[in-house]
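User: My collaborator sent over this chain with a note saying "see what the structure looks like." That's all I know about it. Can you take a look?
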Amino acid sequence: MRTFNYKYLENKTWDNEIMGLLSFIHEARGKQALYVKQKPSELEKLVEIAKIQSTEASNAIEGIRTTNTRLKQLMSDKTIPHNRDEKEIAGYRDALNVVHESFAYIPLQVNYILQLHGMLLSQTDTGYGGHFKNVQNYISATDNTGNCITLFTPLSPFETPLAMENLCNEYNRIIGEGKIDPLLVIPIFIHDFLCIHPFIDGNGRMSRLLTTLLLYRNGYDVGRYISLEAKIAKNKDAYYDALYASQQNWHEEKDDPVPFIKYLLGTIVAAYKDLENRVSLVSDAESSEDIVRNAVQNMIGKFTKSDLRMLIPSVGEKTLELYVKRLCDKGEIEKHGTGRSTYYVRLK
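Assistant: Without extra context I'll predict from the sequence alone. Here is the result:
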């Protein structure tokens, strides 16, 4: 059986790219603490948007979708799910809310992982939520000819419970010793979790919930304000490429987790940059019109009012529409299309 021993990390030399990513994240975390003190109301508005984006994106990666209107209704818990996809979305909503609100009280233990998985699938008609797999699963892809090919074979159902116990114990041991930066340990844990693939369904979504949980528990809560899942969904091919590269020779314990470490650290860096950008848009403005104008100046190419709304949630919808129209009238931006096809471009 595959063993888990992170002791080697104490003597490992990391390349300049990884060291640069770590340095940026450490510095950005300090800046975030200042943002929380200086702009608490603006950041609080980002929280609900991030939850919606995270729930939508993490499910969309797995092909689970609904309309924007239904998504907002589900997120506000003002409707009941109408189909299997919406039940999956509602389950992720509930699990993510628990992570957001109670991360300090959720240690990395097998029983908590099983409970989160049970919550994830609690509204579906399946009976395997909260239970490890009982049949062999495979990580597969479809080639250009339509044939299904196996990319990776995870651990067997028989091996899974003990492997998960050992994996959690090793993570807790290395984090408890405090010798290795948690930002290095977290991607390795997530990578090993995905290689075990402990559940019949929901492994990818669980990996993203656990990523958020572990980052929060180690003081990196940028995902509270900027959706990490949305960043992953936007670069889904890079995510799968990094995971595939790191999975090679995993069963023989000769795998190299560095590609996945770089991918996840890069995603966290992108989130911190996005947060800094959003805060600066508000900090440099004297009025709502200035905020909208600053946001427009940050746009490259086509953009929509939804793009602006996500960037500057502190501006109300009607106010945003007013100032977008005003910028059009002043010739600073130009409107194209109608209805849902409407987009804008900068002219200045």
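A starting point for your reply to your collaborator: DSSP finds 14 helices and four strands in the chain.
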